[in-house]
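re: that chain from earlier
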Amino acid sequence: MLLFEFPDRYTANADVTGNIDGVTWLTADEVGREGEPVPSGAALHVRGWAPNLDASGPATAVVLSVDGSHKYHARIGGLRPDVARHFDNDGLSTSGFEAIVTTGRLAPGDHEIVAYTVDAQQRRYARVAQTLHFTIVADWTSLPADAPRRDTVCSGSLDRIVDESRGLTLTPNAGVVAVPRGSLLSLAGWFYDPSTTETITRAYAVVDGERAFPVAYGEPRLDVAAQVGRAMPAEVGFSVSIPTVTLKRGMHSVEMFALAADGATLIATPINLQIIVGQSSSARLPLAEMTLAFLDDVVRVQRGPAREVGAPLRILRGDRLFVRGWAVDEPARNVAAGVVIVIDGKIEVPALYGLPRPDVAEVHGNDAFLRSGFSGEIETDDLAAGLHTAECRVLSRDGRGAYLTAQRFEFELNEV
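^ sequence. v structure.
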């Protein structure tokens, strides 16, 4: 596979003209702006353009390298009439590329992306002149292991649990809630230190005893002050958001700790919760027949240009398929909870959902559809040779069902 051979077994050419136009970070609930720090665990949508080695036409393959080690194949063949006009070369009109880069294994700090145009037949490559830099920031910290802890416990209550990504208020069952992986979980309530009338300085929601998420503390809760009936600060409300995109699937614990007025002592609170993080899956969900969705194209990333959906697609083992389109939850008149690509009715590949699609929002006259785009990659290494069928299933916004889409595509996997 090219992914593992490049660049060790390839010959380097001189740098070529090209450009990484920009990078946008995406999480399950938010899309960043150009140049913003990237939250830990977010995906990067990288786009640009690159020519072939002699600059006569578009690149036949583009590889993105992160920090010189993590490598990603880009989707090629994007329309770039601006590049063709600038260089007065119609051959560059399809020189655009884009790729999804994951950051889950990257440490907080500064990183760089370099693009390479690759000629697999001649086993040569050239670096695109521009290098793009980005910074990953951690959305959590660690509590000091040696911090003193007070024996007394704060008084408090967890009033509200909301899955912000799906717009659902959750009710714990025996202290447990379940959410799909990638959801943004928001907690709100109140607590205070009964041993003093001084205000708590800071607070943290600690996941699995390791990841401490800063809590917004100090919201007015006059109802609590009236109920307690003693001299105490009224600003005892809290709220905190916990992104699950970086959590592994399974059970996780959440505990709330307050930092005492001395700024060093930790005080436990009665607020704790168990979270089951599950796969964004269509398995075992009731299926409706159809929703508003469209599969734009299926691209053989490794070795060839895009094919129209529905056209026969012959690929070789090791090739990857890049699937792109958009989908919404039509009955809810809003974006869906996610998209899953299903191969042969049993293999599920979660797609990256939430890409900007202003064209969809404009055509349907609904601004809620702005982030209805999705993309996903199908790896073929573990698939059996022969004909395969793939379809997209759209998870309903409330997570209680899934929709079949009208389009399917077939691909034939060959060994050589």
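Confidence is low (pLDDT under 50) at residues 1-5, 280-285, 301-310.
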